[in-house]
Amino acid sequence: MNTYFKSLLTIATLLSSGVTLAHHSFSAEYDGDKPISLTGKVTEMKWSNPHGWIYLDVTDATGKTVNWALETSAANGLIRRGWRKEDLPAGTVLKVDGWQARNGSTTGNIRAVTLSDGRRLFAGTSNQNAPEEK
Predict the structure, then answer these.
(1) How many contiguous H segments (helices) and E segments (strands) does the chain have?
(2) What is the pLDDT confidence band of residue 48, given thresholds at 50, 70 and 90?
(3) In angstroms, rounded to a whole number, what is the distance separating the alpha carbons of residues 120 and 82?
(4) CA distance linking residue 13 with residue 98, whole number of Å
(5) What's the pTM?
(6) 128 Cβ partners below 8 Å, 6+ apart?
(7) Among 30, 47, 6, which residue's Cα sits nearest to residue 103?
(8) From the candidate CATH numbers 2.30.42.10, 2.60.40.2550, 2.70.70.10, 2.40.50.140, the one assigned to the domain spanning 25-122
(9) What is the pLDDT of residues 73-131, one digit of tens each?
(10) Are 129 and 71 in contact (CB under 8 A)?
(11) Smallest Cα–Cα separation from 13: which of 5, 3, 23?
């Protein structure tokens, strides 16, 4: 193999591995043994890829308001599951179910969202051990 070809192959491998390394597995960041069920008000919804994010103000047991960052599946996955951008304006009250980050921070990966009208939307968790969506 000539040096030019080896160099191109090395560069291509390095560039493509960055995409693979950038995405994490559920168990690398979240703890399947730390389920969370939170109710709060949406402060922001980011429709992005590879994950959407819901930011939720939750009042804790001491009465302090804490902002949680909650990971969902990608924006196009949410839309396929029936989500609409107009569903979650700031101030919308939600109940979310999912799992907390391993580091104990106010970050989570969510499985489902229940709106105040009772409608339930699945978030497409990356937890392989999550119960089947119904």
Answers:
(1) 3, 6
(2) confident
(3) 10
(4) 35
(5) 0.76
(6) 26
(7) 30
(8) 2.40.50.140
(9) 888 889 998 898 888 999 999 999 999 999 999 999 999 999 999 999 988 766 666 65
(10) no
(11) 5
